[in-house]
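All the exercises in this workshop are built on plain-text protein records. An example says more than a description, so a record of this kind follows:
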Amino acid sequence: MEHREELLANMLAQAKASVSAVTSDKAAYKALITKLLVQGMLRLDEPIIHVQCRAEDAALVKSCCAAAQSDAAMRAAEMITMTTKSCTVTVSDVALEGSLGGVLLSAMGKPPRSKIKCDNTLDARLNLVYQELKPQIRASLFPSSIKGVIVHEAYDSDDEGEPGPDEEM
């Protein structure tokens, strides 16, 4: 069991290495940051949004804010309930240190006391995908351990062979 968890941890580390390569292509990374900002702005739906990023990404994130605000405003106009967006960038020197990249958006108070947060960091997105795909990854890596474990849904161990209310005797 320990070996399996170690194998999964190694796979996650390899995926992190692959994801971190995204930040080296500046044009692609700028487009990604802009999309992450737009998504966060639309998700938060607040008039003032604070953006935290890695110190090395600060200039890039600041350069993406105007385009993201414009795109979010255009999309918000399509949705009647959305408010106008403004974007304040605060560079984090601790919160996102060691992060793969991306942005952390927050509203209703200045970080770290913000009441609403939208974690659009590459780490958070990778972990989300990893957790969602973990069953498929395990089934693909360890198919023999899955066999015989699946129990028929209709079987209840407390049933003692008695027919259920919908079954005929």
Confidence is low (pLDDT under 50) at residues 150-169. Strands lie at 48-52, 86-89, 102-107, 116-121. The two ends are 43 Å apart (CA to CA). DSSP finds five helices and four strands in the chain.
